[in-house]
Structure formats: C-alpha cells, structure tokens
Amino acid sequence: MWSGLLFLLLGTAARAEVSASVGGSVRNRLYVFSPLDKDNYSYELNIRPEFTVNVSEDMAAVVTLNAQRLLGAAGRAGNAEVLLVDRAYIDYHFEKWDLRIGRQAINMGSAMIWNPIDLVDLNTPLNFAVQKRGVDTARASISLSPTARVIGAVAFPQNKALSLLRAEWLLGGTGMAVVAVDDRRRDEQVLGVDIKGDLEVGYWLEGAVHLPQEGKVSYRVVVGADYSFPVLQSLTFSAQYYRDSSGGAGLSDYDYEALAAGRRSFLGRQYVSLTGNLSTDEVTYVSLAFIGNLEDRTGLVSLGVGRYFFDNLEVSLRGLLMGGLQGPGEFKPGEGHPLGSALSTRTVELYVDWRF
Q1: 192-239: per-residue pLDDT in tens?
Q2: How many domains does one find in the chain?
Q3: Domain that holds residue 11
Q4: Mean pLDDT of all residues in the chain?
Q5: Shared domain check, 284 and 342
Q6: Among 228, 254, 271, where does a domain finish?
Q7: What is the dihedral of CA 158, 164, 169, 174, to 10 degrees?
Q8: Could you report the per-residue pLDDT of 17-68, keeping only the tens digit for each?
Q9: What is the pLDDT of residues 85-118, one digit of tens each?
Q10: Average pLDDT over residues 76-88
Q11: Confidence at residue 17, expressed as pLDDT on a 0 to 100 scale
Q12: 219 and 241, same structural domain?
C-alpha cells in the first residue's frame, strides 16, 4: 500500500506543476558493552530518505523509507535487515483545521525521558529520546481560537485501535493540555494532562491515569524544572521526579516479562533525573545525566561530548556507568539478578547522524 503511494507521489510530481524535494538522514549508533568482547556490542544503521511533494499551498504528501541494518546484540535479538515505509501521509491545511492521513509519528508529552501520555514509544535508559515510530493514523486538528485547539486521532499500533482526543490551550505563558484515550490493545482508557511553562524557571508536569477494564487502576506522573545560565554559549540544568504506581518496589517485584516484551523500559516506582548541557560554542556541547531508582538505590551516570560539522553532521561520544549504593538492583547486577551478565555496568556509545 505505502510503496504504491510513493510511486503515485513521484508520478504526480512528474506530471503536474508541483514542487518536490528529497531529504533524510543516515544514522549510526554503536554501543560497546562491558566486559569487552568481540560479540558484546550492538550496532544500528538507519538510512532514512524522505520524499516530499507539495501539490499546492494547502496540500502536501510525505513518504519516509527506513533501511535498517542491525549487528551484534541488536541483530541477534530480531531481524538483522529491515526495509520499511516509516512515514507515508498526506497533509491538508485549511483555514481553521488540518488533516493528516497515513503512517505518521504520534508526538505527545513535554517531559524528558519519561512521557506518561505517550502510549506508543518508550524511551530507555540507554536512549533518552528514541526515534518515534510511524503508525497508521487519521488525525484532525481544529483551531478554536488563536490560543486553543482540539486534536482527534484514530491510530492502529499493533493493528489495534487507539483513539484519542486532546484539547490544548495557552494561558499566559503556560501551555496546557488534557487527553482522553481509548486503547484497544490493552483494553483500557487513559486520562492525561500535560502542562509546560516558564516563570524565570522552566517547569512541566505530565501525568496519566490508566483505567483498565480488568485489573488495578494505575498512574504515572512526571514533574520537572530547568534553568539556563549565561556560561559560554549556554548552560542548562534540569531535574525531574517520576512516579509509576504500576512499577515494582524492588528486585523481586520487577516485571521482567513486560521488559522483555517491550511494554516497559523502566522497572521501578520512583525515579529522579538530573541533566546538564553545556554548549561551549555554536557547534560543540558537553552533556551530563543521572537517573536514579529511589526504590533500590541504583542508578546510571552518563557523560558525553558532541560536535556538529558542516551544519548537517552530528558526532557524539558518550560513556554510561551503572551502579548502586547497596545490593543488586535495576541498574546493578549481582547474585540472583534476573538479567545476570546481560546487564552491562559500563557502556560506550558512538552516535553519528548525517542529514541530507
């Protein structure tokens, strides 16, 4: 279906007086884990060409392909070579409403690392901002005023319907949103809130309550703040507190089955995160991050440095160290740990992103 849409768009561009463009990216991500071994690594290559056809001022179509190659641990865990249509949608823009139909990313949530109202993609301890997946979706947005709009969407992740309604408005300098979701994958309804503003200090609150047809009601909430200092180019610190009532209270209580199935990426109930980003100039940055599990007192620290070349090439190198204050836990292996030697306490990440 989506390959047919791609050829249709290219054919339309060839026959009609419309504008077309080609862009995209080549992304490389290499993890080297401890202990050092020729097989103890994970490599992911994504080649993502994007084709855009502007049929008119009010209508455009986008198709993004993703050719993926996995090596090492990532290749052993799934398909080592994949070619898929990751985005394929048509945009219609009208005076007060917009319509997007097709395979697209679902972007929701203002928090970092944890996004309670994002029900499709989960960030991980190794990757704080994963690439959003394309999901077959029909999405409409209606502007009620210059500062308010309503968004409705029906998506089909895992071939089951996820229907959502989101109301957004701006109050002073604070953006607010409420979300209602019916998720047929898990037979539950979700009510969420998303608030982000700036009062000298930036702040945000994102939370969701899960109301399953069977089982316990649970909630997830993140509160955070950040502040920037005029140091070199800029220095920004942020802090967050995250609580997940469905998480485990300790090593014996963690849901490793959900972790293996991709339904969870963090196992505990309470976390804190602290991050710092220093831009030494317009092209060079240094990052520091800490994530702590307050239940088992384990955590991870990452330190990275990155640089942009030629305006379209980003290269970064990051080291991650996991450990804890006492006994084994989510981020610290030890005797009786369910993940055993599969949990690496020292990791080096090399990331290269070329955009064209």
Answers
A1: 999 999 988 999 999 999 999 999 999 999 999 999 999 999 999 999
A2: 3
A3: 1-90
A4: 92
A5: yes
A6: 228
A7: -50
A8: 689 999 999 999 999 998 888 889 999 999 999 999 999 889 999 999 999 9
A9: 999 999 999 989 999 999 999 988 899 999 999 9
A10: 90
A11: 65
A12: no
Write the secondary structure of the chain as one string of H (helix), E (strand) and C (coil). Answer: CHHHHHHHHHHHHHHCCCEEEEEEEEEEEEEEECCCCCCCEEEEEEEEEEEEEEEECCEEEEEEEEEEEEEEHHHHHCCCEEEEEEEEEEEEECCCEEEEEEEECCCCCCCCCCCCCCCCCCCCCCCCCCCCCCEEEEEEEEEEECCEEEEEEEECHHHCCEEEEEEEEEECCEEEEEEEEEECCCCEEEEEEEEEEEECEEEEEEEEEEEECCCCCEEEEEEEEEEEECCCCEEEEEEEEEEECCCECCHHHCCHHHHHHCCCCCCECEEEEEEEEEECCCCEEEEEEEEEECCCCEEEEEEEEEEEECCCEEEEEEEEEEEECCCCECCECCCCCCCHHHCCCEEEEEEEEEEC
**337: confidence class by pLDDT, cuts 50, 70, 90:** confident
Which of 194, 228, 262 corresponds to the end of one domain?
Answer: 228
pLDDT in tens, 266-299: 999 999 999 999 999 999 999 999 999 999 999 9
